[in-house]
Amino acid sequence: MPIPRSPPPTTTKSKSDQIQIFDPPKHPAVAPSYSQISTVPLSPTTKLVTIAGQVGHDYTNPAGAISQSFPEQIRIALRNVETCLAAAGASKRDIISNRQLREEIVTKWFGKDRDGLKPPPDTLIGVESLASTGGKREYLFEIEVTAVVQTETPAEEKARKWNHAKRARSEDGRPNANK
């Protein structure tokens, strides 16, 4: 059964209980064959975030011109990753893996804003070419990331479970038939 695309269908489940597939505002997928982000609940307190390969497409540039500068494309692709992470409620600290498509490894970006954490595992894949339009080679770098986000602290989880159990019992300690 195919997974529905954004917006998720209306159900009785909360959004945190559903698989979500979406694009950030003003950050559409470069091609209509995929979406930028998927989030999958792993537990009531964590979710898996998968971000599709981000390229040097500058969504803030109304002309849509693509720089042919390799360093500039890396800078833009990493900014696009940060945009997608924020849209999914994640940060660089939550990244557990990344995959870079190109001949050069980008490591400095992962060392920043991770509070001393080591860079996540990564895979470097050499490719013949990346996405192009009209047969013209445009994108020189692509990166995809996977993150795990804790949606509540252990203390918040404990309080939520305690409150749920408390609501499920009547004042005399017997199970509440109404719950």
Poorly predicted regions are 1-12
CATH superfamily heading: RutC-like
Number of domains: 1
Q: What would the principal axes of the Cα set say about the shape?
A: elongated
Question: What percentage of residues falls in helices of 4 or more residues?
Answer: 10-25%
Q: How do the strands of the widest beta sheet line up side by side?
A: 1-2-3-8-4-5
Q: Provide the residue-averaged pLDDT.
A: 78
* Total beta strand runs: 8
Gap from first CA to last CA: 33 Å
Q: Can you tell me the CATH architecture?
A: 2-Layer Sandwich
Query: Remind me, CATH topology?
Result: 60s Ribosomal Protein L30, Chain: A
Structural class: alpha+beta
Q: Major sheet, described briefly?
A: 6 strands, mixed
Radius of gyration: 20 Å
Q: Secondary-structure element sequence?
A: EEEHEHEEEEH
Enumerate how many helices there are, as a single number.
3
Biased composition (Pro residues): 1-10
Biased composition (Basic and acidic residues): 168-179
Pfam families: Ribonuc_L-PSP (PF01042)
Region (Disordered): 1-32, 153-179
Give a verbal description of the structure:
- With 179 residues, the chain is of the alpha+beta class.
- The chain has a single domain, classed as RutC-like (60s Ribosomal Protein L30, Chain: A, 2-Layer Sandwich), CATH 3.30.1330.
- The chain contains 3 helices and 8 strands; from the N terminus they run βββαβαββββα.
- A 6-stranded mixed beta sheet has the order 1-2-3-8-4-5. A two-stranded antiparallel ribbon has the order 6-7.
- The longest helix is centred in the middle third of the chain and has 18 residues, at 70-87.
- The radius of gyration is 20 Å and the shape is elongated.
